[in-house]
Amino acid sequence: MPPRGPDERLVRFSEDEVARLVQLYTEAEREILNEINRALLRGNKTEYLQAMLANVQAILEDLRNGSRTWCEEAIPRIYVEGAKFAEEQLKAQREKIIVGFGVIHQQAAQVLAEAAYNRLEGVVQTIGRKSEDIYRVLALENIRGSVIGYKTWEQVAKSYREQLAERGVTGFEDAAGRNWNMRSYTEMVARTTTMEAHLQGTANRLLEHGHDLVKVSTHSGACNKCSPWQGKILSLTGRTRGFPTLQEAKQAGLFHPNCRHAYGLYIDLDEEIERLEKELGS
User: Fold this and answer.
1) Which residues contact 250 (CB under 8 A, 6 or more apart)?
2) pTM of the full predicted structure?
3) How far is Cα 263 from Cα 255, in angstroms, rounded to an integer?
């Protein structure tokens, strides 16, 4: 039986990992909101606000640890699945498979895992700063309320609860001006990094066996950036003339965040015939 399409394999192996990370961040977001709302409802006392900040920081530290564990487990696992997908295609061509995964594969998986963690750490730091900003504002209003009166604090608390209900505490804007919340950003990072790991595992295993050409998968509903590249043959390294490179495809928009495309082995029949003729003639 021929191997299934790479995008189908990618989806099957990544969805569970994506869901696991999203759940981790969704629960943290809910806990942070609960801590802030609890402090707002308890009244204008400094100890309540200090406890809120300490609890939020503890939640974020747990989130860091959970993110690190996810990156160290999920990314290498999906990288290996990408390499195994390449092996299935190589076996279909009756090629002898190199046994085991060398240092290059281990290093590649480690680099990908670290890059994923750094992206997640960025959002944790952003939420930490926002929580500290909320604490400072509320602490100042607490002092102001103790002078002017409790009604002032009630108004501030009500205003913050309404803002939190509408926008949450985890919303932020990235460098490109796009708005995210903790869940949406985490899901994007998870999908993008698992896709990168799978593709890199496939590419490195194919290159290890001397193959430079891959074919991009196709699926319905592809976006304008990806549509021109569906079914295209790409050179992984650029050494095979006459084909666009993987880097060129990426620069044109293929494999963007949340992209569901992948690629698999492509055999250039003319080149293969020429190689066989040389082997038979030698």
Assistant:
1) none
2) 0.83
3) 10
Phi and psi angles of residue 120, each rounded to the nearest 5 degrees, phi first = -70, -35
Tens of pLDDT, residue by residue over 186-211, are 999 999 999 999 999 999 999 999 99
CA-CA-CA-CA dihedral for 110, 113, 118, 124, to nearest 10:
-140
As beta bridge partners, residue 213 has 235
pLDDT digits (tens, 9 = 90+) for 231-276: 999 999 999 999 999 999 999 999 998 888 889 999 876 554 455 4
State the residue for tokens 């209900």.
165
Q: Between 145 and 71, whose confidence is greater?
A: 71
Token pair of 217 as six digits = 């998968």
How does the average pLDDT of the chain come out, rounded?
84
Q: Enter the tokens of residue 86.
A: 């390449």
Contact 200, 107 (CB under 8 A): no
pLDDT band at 45 (very low <50, low <70, confident <90, very high): confident
Cβ atoms of 120 and 67 within 8 Å: the answer is yes
CB atoms under 10 Å from CB of 31, counted, come to 17
**Three-state secondary structure along the chain?**
CCCCCHHHHHHHHHHHHHHHHHHHHHHHHHHHHHHHHHHHHHCCCHHHHHHHHHHHHHHHHHHHHHHHHHHHHHHHHHHHHHHHHHHHHHHHCCCCCCCCCCHHHHHHHHHHHHHHHHHHHHHHHHHHHHHHHHHHHHHHHHHHHHHHCHHHHHHHHHHHHHHHHHHCCCCEECCCCCEECHHHHHHHHHHHHHHHHHHHHHHHHHHHCCCCEEEECCCCCCCCCCHHHCCCEEECCCCCCCCCEHHHHHHCCCCCCCCCCCEEECCCHHHHHHHHHHHHHC
Phi, psi (5° rounding) for residue 9? -65, -40
